[in-house]
Design a protein that fits this description.
heterodimer, A: about 220 residues, mainly alpha, 3 helical TM bundles of succinate and fumarate reductases, 7 helices, globular, B: about 250 residues, alpha+beta, Ubiquitin-like (UB roll), Fumarate Reductase Iron-sulfur Protein, Chain B, domain 2, two-stranded antiparallel ribbon, about 35% helix, about 15% strand, elongated, binds iron/sulfur cluster, binds FE2/S2 (inorganic) cluster
Chain lengths: ~220, ~250
C-alpha cells in the first residue's frame, strides 16, 4: 500500500468538514439567531455579510471549494458503505447510517437553498426580513423542507464532530468517546433549537421594528 | 426428555451456487453447542422432513474459540459456533455462513481475504537472522497486559462480517489487521519497525477507510478493544503523516 494520496484525501475530507465547512455552519447559525434579538439587527448583520470585503474570493475559497470537495468525496464514501443498521441495531451503527442519510439530505437541501435564494434575490436592497418572511410562509411544504434540511444538517454536523474526534485520534478510549458523544448531542440540541427558533421568528414576525435605529 | 431443537441452516452447494434453507431437528442434551449439532447432522444427514440429504459442511478445529475457523452467523450475529451454547440461544436456531467471504460450501468459507490483509500490513515481527539474535528486550507488565488482549485475535472474521465498510465494494482491510499493527508496533522488538508498520496502513484500504460504526467491537468474540485500536492507529497514522511530510 504505497498510495500516499489516499490518506491525505481522507483526512482532508474529514478536516474540511469541520473547518471551514463546520465553522461556516456555526457562523450561519449565529447569523440566523440574530432574528431572536431583532429582525432589524438581523437585516443589518446580513447587510454586513453581503458587503464583506473580498466577499467573492472568500465565498469561493472558504465555502464553495471546501464544501464541494467534502460533498463530492463524501458521496463516494456513502456509495462504498454496505449499510446494515437493521441487522446490527447498535446505536453507533445507526448513527453511521444516519450520517450518510443526512449527508444526502443536506447536499440536496443546501444546493437548492443556495440556488433558490440567489435566484430570488431576496436580500438585494432593503426589506430582507419581510421578503424572507413572505417566502417562507408562501407554502407549508417549503417550510417543512427547511425544518428537515436544518435538522439533517445539524445532525451531520454534530455527529461529524464526534467522528472527527475519533478519526483524528483525539478521543481514543470508549469512555472518552462516549463523553464526546454526549457533548456532540448537546451541540445537536443547541443548534437544532437555535435554527428552529430562528425559523419560528421568521414565520411569525412580519414587520420590522427599527429597535436599534437610535444607534445609527 | 426427548426434546428436539430445530436448526435452520442456510446452505449452498458451491461457490456462486444459489443458497437455500434446510431445517434439521437435533436431539437435545446438556451443554449442546452448535458444532455438536452440525456433527449430529454429519453422522445422520436427515432433514426435518425426514428426507436423506447431504451433510452440512463447516469449518472447525480447536473447539475452544482459539483458531477462529468456525465463525458463522448464528441467530443474526457473527460468532464462533464452538462457543455458541444451545441453552443460551433463542430457538429455532438459525445459522448462515459469513456473507463477506467466498463460500466454499454451506457454512465453510474461504478466509484467505483475512490472511491476505495480515500479509499486506506485515502483521508480524521479523526475528530471523543469520546468527542468534539473543533474547528480546523486556517489557513492562502493564503494557504486556493490554497487548496480550490484542494478541488474542484469531482472525475469525466476525468483525469484518459486521463492518459496513468491509465489502467487495471497497479495499478496506478491516479492523483486525489494523489492531494487529497496533500490537506489533508496540511490541519491544516490533518497535524497530514502527514507521514501516504504520506506513502499511496508510494507503488505500487502510485505517482512513474505517467509518466508525463500531459494530466490530460489539461482535468480536474475544472482546478485543478494536475501536480503541482504530482510534489509536488514527493518531499514530496522523503523527506519521506529519512527520513524513515535514522531513522529506
Ligand atoms: S478482532 Fe475479534 S472478531 Fe476480529 S478477527 Fe480478531 S478475534 Fe475475530
Ligand atoms: S468501526 Fe470501522 S472497522 Fe469497526 S465496524 Fe465500523 S467501520 Fe468497520
Ligand atoms: S473451532 Fe476454533 S474457534 Fe471454534
Amino acid at each position: 500500500m504505497t498510495d500516499q494520496n489516499h490518506f491525505l484525501i481522507r483526512k482532508l475530507h474529514s478536516l474540511l468538514g469541520l473547518f471551514p465547512v463546520g465553522a461556516f455552519f456555526f457562523e450561519h447559525t449565529l447569523t440566523n439567531s440574530f432574528t431572536l434579538i431583532g429582525p432589524d439587527l438581523w437585516e443589518k448583520w446580513c447587510w454586513c455579510l453581503h458587503n464583506l470585503p473580498f466577499k467573492v474570493p472568500i465565498e469561493i475559497l472558504f465555502i464553495f471549494i471546501p464544501l464541494a470537495f467534502h460533498a463530492l468525496y463524501g458521496l463516494w464514501i456513502v456509495y462504498v458503505a454496505k449499510n446494515n443498521a437493521l441487522r446490527y441495531t447498535y446505536w453507533r451503527n445507526w448513527a453511521f447510517y444516519l450520517q450518510r442519510i443526512t449527508a444526502l439530505i443536506t447536499i440536496v437541501f443546501v444546493t437548492w437553498h443556495v440556488w433558490a435564494l440567489k435566484a430570488a434575490e431576496l436580500f438585494v436592497g432593503s426589506g430582507g426580513f419581510v421578503n424572507f418572511h413572505n417566502y417562507l410562509t408562501s407554502s407549508p411544504a417549503l417550510l417543512a423542507i427547511y425544518v428537515v434540511g436544518w435538522v439533517a444538517a445539524v445532525f451531520h454536523f454534530s455527529n461529524g464532530i464526534w467522528g472527527f474526534l475519533a478519526s483524528w485520534g483525539i478521543t481514543v478510549g470508549p469512555r472518552a468517546q462516549s463523553y464526546a458523544y454526549v457533548a456532540c448531542m448537546l451541540v445537536f440540541c443547541l443548534f437544532t433549537a437555535a435554527g428552529l427558533a430562528a425559523l419560528y421568528q421568521l414565520v411569525t414576525v412580519s414587520t420590522v421594528t427599527p429597535l436599534y435605529s437610535m444607534m445609527y | 426428555m426427548a426434546e428436539v431443537i430445530r436448526l435452520r441452516v442456510k446452505r449452498q452447494d458451491g461457490p456462486g451456487a444459489a443458497p437455500y434453507w434446510e431445517e434439521f431437528d437435533i436431539k437435545y442434551r446438556a451443554n449442546l453447542n452448535v458444532i455438536a449439532m452440525l456433527q449430529d447432522i454429519q453422522q445422520n444427514p436427515v432433514n426435518a422432513k425426514g428426507q436423506k440429504t447431504t451433510p452440512v459442511v463447516w469449518g472447525c478445529n480447536c473447539l475452544e474459540e482459539i483458531c477462529g475457523e468456525c465463525a458463522m452467523v448464528i441467530n443474526g450475529t457473527p460468532r464462533q459456533a464452538c462457543s455458541a451454547l444451545v441453552d443460551k440461544l433463542t430457538k429455532p436456531i438459525t445459522v448462515e455462513p459469513l456473507s463477506k467471504f467466498t463460500i466454499i460450501r454451506d457454512l465453510y468459507i474461504d478466509r484467505a481475504k483475512l490472511f491476505n490483509a495480515l500479509k499486506k500490513v506485515n502483521a508480524w515481527i521479523p526475528i530471523d537472522g543469520t546468527y542468534d539474535l539473543g533474547q528480546g528486550p523486556k517489557q513492562p507488565p502493564a503494557k504486556a497486559d493490554w497487548m496480550y488482549k490484542l494478541s488474542q485475535c484469531m482472525t475469525c472474521g466476525c468483525c469484518a462480517e459486521s463492518c459496513p465498510n468491509y465489502s467487495d465494494k471497497s479495499d478496506f482491510i478491516g479492523p483486525a489487521a489494523i489492531s494487529q499493527v497496533r500490537l506489533f508496533m508496540n511490541h519491544p522488538t516490533g518497535q524497530l519497525h514502527r514507521d514501516e508498520l504504520v506506513d502499511n496502513i496508510m494507503g488505500n484500504g487502510g485505517i482512513a477507510d474505517c467509518g466508525k460504526s463500531q459494530n466490530c467491537v460489539r461482535v468480536c468474540p474475544k472482546e478485543i478493544p478494536l475501536t480503541t485500536s482504530l482510534a489509536d492507529m488514527n493518531r499514530e497514522a496522523l503523527k506519521r503523516w506529519f512527520s513524513r511530510g515535514l522531513r522529506f
